Amino acid sequence: MEKQRLDKIIASTGKWSRREAKELIRQGRVLVDGVPARSAEERADPETAAVTVNGEVLEYRRYTWVMLNKPAGCLSATEDGRGQTVLDLLPADLRRQGLFPVGRLDKDTEGLLLLTNEGGLAHALLSPKRHVDKVYYTRVTGRLTEADCQAFAGGLTLADGLVCLPAGLEILSAGEESEAYVTLREGKFHQVKRMLACLGKPVAYLERIRMGPLALDRDLPRGAFRFLTENELEELRRFDNPTKNVKSSPKT
Q1: Annotation says 106 is catalytic
Q2: Rounded CA gap, 143 and 203, in Å?
Q3: Distance between CA atoms of residues 162 and 182, nearest Å
Q4: Which domains, from first to last, does the chain contain?
Q5: Tens digits of per-residue pLDDT, 139-188?
Q6: Which residue among the candidates 33, 106, 219, 240 is catalytic per the annotation?
Q7: Is the Cα dihedral 90, 181, 128, 196 positive or negative?
Q8: Cα–Cα distances in angstroms (integers) from residue 50 to residues 55, 58, 59, 112, 230, in the given order
C-alpha cells in the first residue's frame, strides 16, 4: 500500500484528530516499528508498519463498515436538526471517521442499516443497475391474499404514477393483521409502505432484515452495532465486481 503521513494514519482510527496526533508525535508517544516518530510528516505503510500510541498497537482499517440494528425514531442521516440520527448511536471515534448510511430507512422503520466511509462500494450497492435485493418483514392491517402477491410480482403502478419493478411478497400469516416478507430491488421513497397502501393494506410495522448477502444479526440488540466480518465484506465486494456471480442467500 502507498505510504501515508503518520498523523493521517493515526487520525484514521477516529480516536484522535490530526491535530491531536501531531501533539502525540511531538511528545514522543508514537513509535513506528519500535522507533520514536520524528514528525507528523513522516510516512509509513499503514498495512505493514507497526504503529503504537502510548504502547497500544493501532488497528488500521482502510475503510470502516458497520452493521447497525436501527431503532424506530432515529433518522438515517449524518446530521439533522430535527432529531437523533443513526450517527448519534455510534461512539465518538467512529463518528469522526466520516461514516454515512448506505441508503435510508424511514424514521419509524427498524432493522438492518449499513454505515461506511467507502463511497465506491456503497454506490455499487445502491445502484439500480445492480438490483441488490432488500428484504423486509412487515405487519399490515388487513388480509393479504395471493392476488396481492401477483400484483407485487407484476410490478405495481402507484397512484402518483410511480412504476415499481417486480417485487416479492411472501405471506407469513393472513388475518385482520397479516405478516409478510417483502423483497425489493430498488429503494424509492417510502416504497414498501406505498405499495402495500396501494393494495389497501397499510403498514403497521416494518423492519429490514436483509440487504444483498447480509442478514440482520439477530444477536445485535436494537440500537447496537458491530463491525462487518472479513467474510461479510468479501460478499459485499462481489457487488463491486459484476464479472463475479453472487448467489442469493436464503432468507432469515
Answers
A1: yes
A2: 12
A3: 18
A4: 4-57 (3.10.290.10), 65-128+213-240 (3.30.70.580), 134-211 (3.30.70.1560)
A5: 999 999 999 999 999 999 998 899 999 999 999 999 999 999 999 998 88
A6: 106
A7: negative
A8: 11, 8, 9, 35, 21
